# Entry
Amino acid sequence: MGELAASTYHTVTESVGKLRGRPPAGSRPRDLRRTLIDAALQLIERTGVEALSVREAARVAGVTHQAPYRHFANKQELVAAIAEEGFHALREKAVVAMAAHPDDSVARLDAMALTYFVFAVEQPAQFRVMFGPEIADKARYPALRASADVIMAMLTQLIAETQRAGRVRPGDPLDLALAGWSMMHGLASLIVNGPVARYPQGSVEPRDLARSMIGLLHTGLDVR
# Structure
């Protein structure tokens, strides 16, 4: 299963590169696309994704009302692009964090979990879009689905590596990855959306709380 996870990761990563299809750096079309995504994300941060419109994104971006339609057929495609960019950013941050621990698969697993949590706390609007109902059917957006699948493939591969090192309990790596993801995503969502603030843990610095949860996660994953 470890080899399968690694194979999945490389396959999905290659697919992302093909699907993104970005124009050469410095070209005007790419600049417009990037500008529109940034403008739309600013609007979502202010008023939420429900209030977003392509027309308003064009106004904030300083372009004509028709310009966005060169890249996005409708609001849903614009929101999907924001989510896709979020998954790419999350992957890049995770890769950097894991690179600090080349010889310790458990430390890499912890680094990825903490990176996921910190990204959610620091980019709450984009995090909500990435997992929100507006684009729940990611199959309609192949590039978005591929970028999201990379994150799960990375986590599954890390679980498989720690199993081979004898530091994580036996079992299907995908099942264990789903369990770990559920815990960190749940904590991130509770903090981003406010409920944790009602409890004593709400006074704990978010990173410290995340590290505590990662410790509890190890309790469930450790070899028995």
Residues 2-19+75-221 form a domain with the Tetracycline Repressor; domain 2 fold (CATH 1.10.357.10).
